[in-house]
């Protein structure tokens, strides 16, 4: 059993996976997320600072939700996200669609390669039998 202190409230809880936040704080965070999502949908041109102020959520938390692709801002909102690989402007996530597809193709090529088996031509690599 893995017991940790919650990063938000400090209470002990049984840690399973993910962020070190207790279930009660996780539920509160999810409620805040839904509030932020609704606010962005109702105000499409709003920026991160305005959302943070209106919903009483830290800008770092909003940016984390955007990086996780849970939130997406419109292009006219002025959110200054950049692809972590090439630097082009994006609205959500960590990478642009071009870099994502390049990474996926690269991984597919890596894992699709057939494994080469070496044939042993050495006479000493033969099967041996024991006489009874």
Largest sheet: 2 strands, antiparallel
- Spell the H/E element sequence: EEHHHEEH
Strand order across the largest sheet: 1-2
Helix content: 40-55%
Q: What ranges have pLDDT less than 50 throughout 5 or more consecutive residues?
A: none
> What structural class results from the helix and strand content?
mainly alpha
Strand content: 5-15%
Which shape, going by the Cα principal axes?
Answer: flat
Total number of β-strand segments? Answer: 4
How many H/I helices?
A: 4
Radius of gyration of CA atoms, rounded to a whole number? 25 Å
> What is the terminal separation in angstroms?
54 Å
Mean pLDDT: 84
What does this protein look like?
The chain is mainly alpha-helical and 132 residues long. It has a domain at 22-109. The chain is built from four helices and four strands; from the N terminus they run E-E-H-H-H-E-E-H. Strands 1-2 form a two-stranded antiparallel ribbon. It has a two-stranded antiparallel sheet with strand order 3-4. Strand 1 (3-5) and strand 2 (12-14) form a beta hairpin. It is flat, with a radius of gyration of 25 Å. The protein starts with a strand and ends in a 20-residue tail after the last helix. The model has no long low-confidence stretch (mean pLDDT 84).
Give short descriptive properties of this protein.
flat, 132 residues, single chain, mainly alpha, two-stranded antiparallel sheet, 4 helices, 4 strands
Q: TL;DR?
A:
The chain has 132 residues and is mainly α.
């Amino acid at each position: 059993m893995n017991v940790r202190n919650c990063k938000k409230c400090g209470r002990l809880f049984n840690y399973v996976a993910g962020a070190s936040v207790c279930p009660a704080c996780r539920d509160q965070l999810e409620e805040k997320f839904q509030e932020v999502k609704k606010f962005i949908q109702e105000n499409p041109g709003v920026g991160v600072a305005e959302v943070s102020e209106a919903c009483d959520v830290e800008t770092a938390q909003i940016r984390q939700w955007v990086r996780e692709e849970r939130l997406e801002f419109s292009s006219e909102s002025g959110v200054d996200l950049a692809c972590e690989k090439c630097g082009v402007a994006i609205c959500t996530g960590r990478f642009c669609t071009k870099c994502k597809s390049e990474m996926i193709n690269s991984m597919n090529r890596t894992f699709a390669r057939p494994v080469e088996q070496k044939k042993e031509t050495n006479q000493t690599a033969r099967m041996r039998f024991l006489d009874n």
